[in-house]
């Protein structure tokens, strides 16, 4: 598997890239080639007196490359200029990436949970699964919030096609997953799966599939607002990663705020793996 790791070369990004446990988790799910990408924004002028932005970034990526190669992963580096999320998505598509990874700081010093514009735009536009890697905020030496990326996974489903696609990610995640909690939130407009299927039964069937892969699975059917209940489940079960699908949206609608997936990414305490709809021909 190929993965794109987007970095802004900050201390937080360095903590994530140089965490051996994190790299080992990526290796366990099949990632053997990592593409480090850093983007020089268009508003950073190449001619800033005394500063060669591209050269400085290449030197830093070379240091990261040595760390990653030491754990047995192949590495390529990319220093590009442009709009960050567009260039990251472009590289992911051009190399046929299976996964994109971006770091996101956790709670701000004022306890407001925020995600940066690059993370938010990637969540809206990515065409490959996106891992939002949560990093501590407000400390001098930030670390990953959860180093064992997929050890305990919370899977949220509304039984849609997109949620089913997210579940199929366990076909490779199970190599690094020990426990999984499967959560469905019933609402007045979406009480459960289509037809006569009981949500408890549907979740039990999915749990059975995970058990066949050696994953200890439990189920939880909740009532209420999907975002609130998914976040409450994260607080209760303390997963290392929350897995969910993203509904397909038109070019115009994907610019709007308010989707469940975006709200979970913005407010979750831990890592989030977002799986977008499949590509259309």
UniProtKB/TrEMBL annotation:
Annotated TM spans: none
Q: Where is the UspA domain?
A: 2-132, 150-276
In the record, which residues are listed under signal peptide? Answer: none
Q: Which InterPro entries match?
A: Rossmann-like_a/b/a_fold, Universal_stress_UspA, UspA
Query: Origin, by domain of life?
Result: Archaea
Among PANTHER family, the record links this protein to: STRESS RESPONSE PROTEIN NHAX, UNIVERSAL STRESS PROTEIN MJ0577
Q: Which family does it belong to?
A: Belongs to the universal stress protein A family.
Which protein, by its recorded name, is this?
A: UspA domain protein
Species for this entry:
Natrialba magadii (strain ATCC 43099 / DSM 3394 / CCM 3739 / CIP 104546 / IAM 13178 / JCM 8861 / NBRC 102185 / NCIMB 2190 / MS3)
